[in-house]
Protein: MATE efflux family protein
Organism: Methanobacterium formicicum
Amino acid sequence: MNSEIENSKGVDQRISMVTGEPKKAIRVLAIPMIISMFLIMAYNLADSIWVAGLGPNALAALGFINPLFMIVIGLGNGLGAGATSLIARCIGAKNKEGADNAAMHSLILTIVVSAVITVILLLFLKEILLLMGAGVTIDLAMEYGQIVFGGLIFFIFSNVASGILRAEGDVNRPMYAIAATTVLNIILDPIFIYYFGWGVSGAAWATILSSSLSCVVLFYWLLLKRDTYVSFSREDFKASWNVIKNILMVALPASIESLVMSILGVILNLMLVVTGGAEAVAVYTAGWRVVMMAMIPPIGIGTAAITVGGAAYGARNYKNLSTALSYSAKLGVGIAVVTGLLSYVFAGNIATIFTYSPESAFMAPSIAAFLQVMFLFYLTVPLGITASSIFQGMGKGFTSLILTVLREVVFVAFFSYLFAFTLGFGSPGVWWGIVVGGGLGCVVAYIWATIYVRRLKRNY
C-alpha cells in the first residue's frame, strides 16, 4: 500500500513538473536526456573506435551503413516523438484516457513498422549499398548491415518506450536502460571483434545483444511493473484512426527528416568518394561521430522541449510555449560555445582516438582539420533543433519537416557542391558546405518558429 502511494506521488510530481515552470522543466528533463544521448553516442563511438583497428575499409563500411542506420533510428525517434507529443498534449489538456490510448497505439505501430522495414532492408540491402557507392567495402558493409538491420525492432521499441516515459516527465529510467546497454556494448565489442575474431560482424552482434537488454528493461517498466502515468489495459484501449493520425502527424515527418538527413549523408559520401575516395569517407565518418557528441546537449534540450512545449500547447498556455522556445535555444547555444571551443583546441588529441593503429594513423591530420572546421557549425545547431522540437511538440510535424528539407537539401547540399566542385576545394569543401548551409538553415528555422509562437500568443 505504501509503495502504491509513493508511486502515485512520484507520478503526480512528474506531471506537475511537466506542466509547471518551463525553464525548470526543461533543465530537469534535459539533463538525463543529455546523459542518455552521451551514452548512446559512447555506444556508437565504441563501434567506430574498435572497428577503426581493422583498417580504413572497415571504418568506411560503417560509414556507408550509417545513413541507413540513421533511417532506422529516425523511425524510432519519429514514433517516439509522435508518442511524446500526443501524450504530452493530452497531459496538458488533462485527458488521461487519451494519453493511455496514445501509448497503446504507439506500441502497436512499433510492431507493424518494425516488421515492414526489416523485410525491406534485408531484401534490398546490397542494391542500396551499391547505389550509395560502397564499392570495395560492399562485403564488409553487408556483413555488418544484415545483422544490425535484422534486429531493428530493438532500436525502434527502445525509442518509442523511452518517448512514452519522457512524455510524463520520467527521463531517469530510459537513462538507466541506455546506461546498461552502453556498458554491455563496450564490453562485448572487443571480445566479439578481436577475441572471437568476428571482425565487423562482431561489432554488429555486440550492438544487437546490448540493445535487446534495453528492450527487456523498458518492457518490464511499462507493461509489467505498471507504475507509470499511462496505463496499458485492454479494457481502456479503443482502436482509433484519429489517434494513429495524431501520432503519425509528428512521427512521419520526424522519420522523413531522418530519411532526408540520411539521403544527405549518402550525397555527401558520394561527393567525398569523388573528391578523396574511401579515405575521405573514413575521415568524415570518424569526425562526424565527434560532431554528434558535441550536438548532444542541444538535441537533449530539444527533446525536453517537445514534452514541455507539447504540454503547454495542449493547455493553450502560449506564454510557457514561448518561454520553452527561447530558453531552450539560449541554453543550447551557451553550451555549444563551450563544447565547440574544446573540440577546436583539442582536435588533434581527439583525432588520435580513431587513428591508434598503424593502418589508420595517416588519417589523424585530416580528422583534426575536419573537427576544427566544424566548430562554427556547433554554434547555430541549437537554433534549428529547438525550432523543430517546438513544432513537433505542437503536433506540427510537417512544418518541422519543411524546415529540415530546406536546411539539408537546399542549403547544405547546395553549398557542399559549390565549395567542393565549383570552387574546387575538394573534400574540405564538403565540410564547409555543412557549416554554411547548416548555419543558414538553422537561423531560418528559429526565426520561423519565433514568429509562429508570437502569433499564437497575440491571437489567443
The CA atoms of residues 162 and 174 lie 5 Å apart. The longest helix spans residues 241-294. The chain has 16 helices and no strands. The two ends are 44 Å apart (CA to CA).
